[in-house]
Design goal:
The structure is a single chain. By secondary structure, this protein is of the alpha/beta class. It has 5 helices and 8 strands, in the order H-E-E-E-H-E-H-H-E-H-E-E-E. It has helices at residues 10-13, 80-86, 101-104, 109-124, 139-150; strands at residues 33-36, 45-49, 59-65, 89-93, 127-137, 157-161, 172-175, 178-181. The strands form 2 sheets. A 6-stranded mixed beta sheet has the order 1-2-4-3-5-6, sandwiched between helices. Strands 7-8 form a two-stranded antiparallel sheet. A hairpin with a 2-residue loop joins strand 7 and strand 8 (178-181). The longest helix is centred in the middle third of the chain and has 16 residues, at 109-124.
């Protein structure tokens, strides 16, 4: 379990996510809507599956990170309409503590838990490896920026918001080494 420091590997301590999507020979078609992943007792992760998800076609994935004191499910509401319109999966993990690990100390348990949540999603859903994004609100935005930069080969987009609004105050979209801010 990622909450135990003795089980956090060196990759997690450096902020590296180790998993990548691969075509699954066992894609699962599940009921649409929000689904708890069942990876943690009190703090878990929620996956939102749009009605138009089709296991025959890889879907884009957006990872959403809450602010300090927040919870995963709070991140889904503002983006479910966009997820439905684009056939996009939304993954919202809970931080292991009140905020994200590097915000309160160093990388470790949250990176390991995010890897665990990604493993769950990649094993059960077809994800388009060219369309994976990460974003967040407040502390989650800072964490998304850090994780996004460290794992630039995984993420095609990065979105960050520092104010309480469903629309980002400052949008940063990045692909590879170039970036565009607006």
């Amino acid at each position: 379990m990622p909450d135990r420091p003795d089980l956090i590997d060196e990759s997690s301590r450096r902020g590296f996510l180790t998993l990548r999507p691969r075509p699954s020979d066992k894609p699962v078609s599940r009921a649409p809507g929000p689904q708890r992943l069942g990876l943690g007792e009190k703090r878990d992760a929620v996956l939102y599956v749009p009605r138009r998800y089709d296991p025959a076609h890889p879907a884009p994935l957006l990872i959403l990170l809450h602010g300090a004191g927040g919870e995963a499910h709070q991140m889904l509401g503002p983006l479910t309409d966009a997820a439905e319109a684009r056939g996009m999966l939304l993954l919202a993990p809970d931080s292991r503590g009140r905020s994200w690990d590097v915000i309160v100390g160093a990388f470790g348990p949250d990176v390991a838990f995010l890897d665990q949540a990604l493993a769950h999603v990649f094993e059960r859903y077809q994800v388009d490896a060219e369309r994976i994004g990460i974003g967040g609100f407040s502390d989650g935005a800072s964490y998304a920026l850090s994780i996004g930069l460290i794992n630039g080969a995984l993420f095609s987009e990065s979105l960050h918001s520092r104010r309480a609004s469903p629309r980002p105050a400052r949008l940063t979209a990045r692909r590879g080494s170039s970036s565009r801010t607006g």
